Amino acid sequence: MVSFLVDNIGELVTNLPGTGEGGLLGIRRKAAVLVEEGDIAWIGPSRYAPAADRRIDAQGGAVLPGFVDSHAHLVFAGDRAAEFAARMAGEPYTGGGIRTTVAATRAADDDLLRDNVERLRSEALRQGTTTIEIKSGYGLTVADEARSLRIAAEFTPETTFLGAHVVPPEYANRADDYVGLVCGPMLRAARPHARWIDVFCEKGAFDADHARAILTVGKDAGLGVRVHANQLGPGEGVQLAVELEAASADHCTHLSRADVDALAGSRTVATLLPGAEFSTRSPYPDARRLLDAGATVALATDCNPGSSYTSSMPFCVALAVREMGMTPAEAVWAATAGGARALRRDDVGVIRPGARADLVLLDAPTHLHLAYRPGVPLVTKVLHNGAPQ
Ligand code: NIG
Ligand code: FE
Predict the structure, then answer these.
(1) Is the Cβ atom of 276 under 6 angstroms away from ligand 1?
(2) Residue spans per domain, the chain
(3) Which annotated residues bind Zn(2+) (predicted)?
């Protein structure tokens, strides 16, 4: 395999505390990174850089770890642009549109679903996302959930079984029966293709008792736990996530003091999804409150056709800084190292020897520009597993 030297880096964000200038991002100036066999082999000052087969000139710009998008719903068909337009004209978001996407997804063949995932995954990659989690949740039959996860697993090892997204129409008023299906045959069919299990724990979706039952059998079957929690209103989702030692509680928009304290006292990452508040015109989660309490915060896109149809981590970083009280450094950390924590990974979201060579090169002198220049395509080059994309 060809080795690469990424050289002439003006600002290298390592996410290694105590490195270089110290601080959260472990910034080094005038640096170079050697990439061999898909991994980072060396980092150091440009002037001491070892030889490599090829040189990539960062042109004095910033280089960051690839973004880790730890929350995305990419296996679906159709879109819901009309629902978005109605919301922008004053309709509230309730999650009811999920059933529209379920119908379109069930009617689609495998190739259509696969092409849609590929389109969104490459869109995300061009914007610097090198690790992405993909959920099922728009199939909601045994066969459709299994195939959603089979297709997702073609693109990422971070696959999540979300059979408990909503109760599908054929189980209307029979939520107990649907939960039985999810916990039994659906979980058995999903298990070979999934690493995680998730539940939308919310009014109108699944209550805490149902969510606990589903997550517990999933955990017993060897899946890691994540929870859609406290998105549309206060609820028990966050407390449940902490109780079950979930890797992540996602959304965290409506939190009580006890919720914040529970997250701060746990290993459960609070994954904030500002694209959802943007696209549903809702109040943003208070990242400042979580950070000040000592919770670990991640940022992710929640990419899906209903509540957040963006694949852009730079857009989420900009929103988090402008709307959620995060500093640019905190937001960049949350979109890289934070996402890695939310997926319990230590080989991504960081630039250190031995980590995966996932690098983002910016046409900007520092990471600050991700929030300072919102909407501008600053990502000029992406290395994924050591290979230029
Ligand atoms: O994370 N909250 C539940 N699920 C998605 C929305 C799905 C949809 O509206 O299609 C979310 O926001
Ligand atoms: Fe989601």
Answers:
(1) yes
(2) 3-66+349-388, 67-343
(3) 71, 73, 228, 302
